[in-house]
Amino acid sequence: QEIRKEVQALEQTAREILTLLQGVHQGPGLQDIPKKCQKAREHFGTVRTQLESLKTKFPTDQYYRFHEHWRFVLQRLVFLAAFVVYLESETLVTREAVAEILGIEADRERGFHLDIEDYLSGVLTLASELARLAVNSVTAGDYSRPLRISTFINELDSGFRLLNLKNDSLRKRYDGLKYDVKKIEEVVYDLSIRGLNKEATVGAGGEK
Fold this sequence. Notes:
The chain is an all-alpha fold. 76% of the residues lie in helices and 0% in strands. The protein has one domain (1-194): Methane Monooxygenase Hydroxylase, Chain G, domain 1 (Up-down Bundle), CATH 1.20.58.2140. Helix 1 (2-22) packs parallel to helix 3 (63-89) and helix 3 packs parallel to helix 5 (116-139). The longest helix is centred in the middle third of the chain and has 27 residues, at 63-89. GO terms for molecular function: endonuclease activity; hydrolase activity; metal ion binding; RNA binding; sequence-specific DNA binding; single-stranded DNA binding.
């Protein structure tokens, strides 16, 4: 019961972070990215406190006995942390860095930790979110972002191909990555047909 109560509080904070970050999909939101990321990081302070409290509700050596209770919310928090890091630096967050953002361990031996499969699941959710962002960026007139997202997702896909995924739900989620890659390729293709990718490349080059 106590674990459930803590998990519900975490879910509520995760919803607040998600609502905040969803704003980047609207036109003006793209200009507001640094502000949104800063606010999201403040919310992660609450997440750390809530996870601290959750840790005290069961014996450390029984992590996997109760794992099902918080598995879903932890995967969602990984996705949110990965999304913030991507928006800030357009890089993929490492499992260690997510664990640090959440205030938990990366190493299984050290107690309450970030399970590798939970990390990978969260990263796959990020891919879907970025596919959506690629489409919405074009609507907002940002033509270089989809090209950068395309490069990032293709690298992510190559990384996942190297893994031998045994977990069924993770395999299913990985199958979804193929659709994300395809969706982004269509956006990039559409930009090139309309001659907008040249404009994007010149724009991106000019900013540097």
